[in-house]
Amino acid sequence: MADAPEIAPSAEQVPAPLSPTEALTQAVAGLPGVLSAGIEVGEVVLRTDLAGLISVMTVLKNEPRFSFEQCMDICGVDWPTSPERFEVVYNLLSVSLNQRVRVIVRTDGAQPVPSVAGLWAAATWWERETWDLFGIPFSGQPDLRRILTDYGFVGHPMRKDFPMTGYVEVRYDEERRQVVYEPVKLVQDYRRFDFISPWEGMTTLPGDEKAHREG
């Protein structure tokens, strides 16, 4: 008896292969501590909480299937009407696997975010900037100082809670040859406003003498 001919599977029966972005999304979605993972504007974005941040970041950096060797930047996002007002966003890069992932964690601004400087030394600069601009504290960060504003600055610029003029100003003193701090001096030069149009104020224009010449 002749064997029955093999029937090739139809195109509908063969699942389409996953793209690298989709495969990475599925891989990170199964990690402990990941609350959600998806593709947003063509990039892999995963969300975690404060308790799971370090464990998730450790896996992303150290496991060979991820190998995110570089923390490219850390920034803050302010949602003033949300109970957890701030998002801290981490953009990671794997040079060896040529892939990127974005990690997002939320905080109310009072609870400190665990520092990832122990995984990526460059994160210290980004955490200092996020603290300076948004006032988001980072626990375990040994060098949490201002980095963009002056040390005497009050408030945090991205919260819009700082005085408009400040209290001190910084300048370089040529005589003392050093940077000095002084009280703010807001000098307003005296100006006279006559509200006259510049065209009305000009009684003669260059070339008017030609109009008065006798022909």
Low-confidence stretches: none
Mass-distribution shape: extended
Beta-strand segment tally: 9
Strand order of the biggest β-sheet: 1-2-5-4-3
Report the biggest beta sheet as strand number plus sense, adding barrel if it closes: 5 strands, mixed
Query: What portion of residues is helical?
Result: 10-25%
If you had to describe this structure to a student in words, what would you say it looks like?
The chain is an alpha/beta fold and 215 residues long. The chain is 19% helix and 26% strand. It is built from five helices and nine strands; from the N terminus they run αββαββββαβββαα. The strands form three sheets. A five-stranded mixed β-sheet has the order 1-2-5-4-3. Strand 3 and strand 4 (86-94) form a beta hairpin. The longest helix has 12 residues, at 123-134.
Fold blueprint:
Blueprint lengths: L19 H10 L4 E7 L2 E6 L4 H10 L7 E9 L7 E9 L4 E9 L5 E2 L8 H12 L3 E2 L28 E6 L4 E6 L14 H4 L6 H4 L4
Parallel strand pairs: 2-5, 6-7
Antiparallel strand pairs: 1-2, 3-4, 4-5, 8-9
Short description:
The chain is of the alpha/beta class and 215 residues long. 19% of the residues lie in helices and 26% in strands. The strands form three sheets. It has a five-stranded mixed sheet with strand order 1-2-5-4-3. It has a two-stranded parallel sheet with strand order 6-7. The protein has a two-stranded antiparallel ribbon with strand order 8-9.
